[in-house]
Amino acid sequence: MAEKFRFGINVKPRYGDEFAGSGVVDDLCYHVWARTAFFAYMNHLGVELPPNSWASPIRIEAVYQTPLLVKEEAKVYGRTTRIGRSSNTQEAQINEADSGRLVATLTYVFVIVDGKTGRSIPNTDEWKQKVIAFEGKENVQIAQS
User: What is the mean pLDDT of residues 39-68?
Assistant: First the structure.
């Protein structure tokens, strides 16, 4: 299932990532890891958010499959699946790094927000072109403006 992802980072659970002495990674860490992977993905593509802006999540969906033990390492994959006028849908998949066991899938819809006005701003052509070049045109849905 990770074959559809072209980018990923490895993450080793840290002290404090354990859920209440259970030996299992707290699922909240998965969201931090996914966001970290998304920003590493942007760096990999060589794009930055416009000045004085941020990516604000407006929808998050998570499906948990199996727990990740704190002694295990995770591989966190990220990709862009849809580019809208001012929104992007990004998927993350977390696998146990050695076995490839699926741990969780997360889907985020982000809107780029202008820091001065608080309003959404359009995606840049540079962003669109770099995502399509990296992911392949057949793998990214482009919304009609």
Answer: 94
